[in-house]
Amino acid sequence: MQMIVIFIIGIILMYMDMAFAGFSPMTVFGIEVYFVPKLLFMYILLLTIYAGPRISMLFAVLFGIMLDIYIGSLYGIHIFGFIAFVIFMQAAFRVFYRDFVAMAFVVLLNSFLFDLYQYAVYSVLDFISMPLFDYITLRAIPSVLISALFFVVLYVLAIQTAKVRKEFRRSN
Question: What is an example of a Pfam family matching this protein (predicted)?
Answer without folding.
Answer: MreD
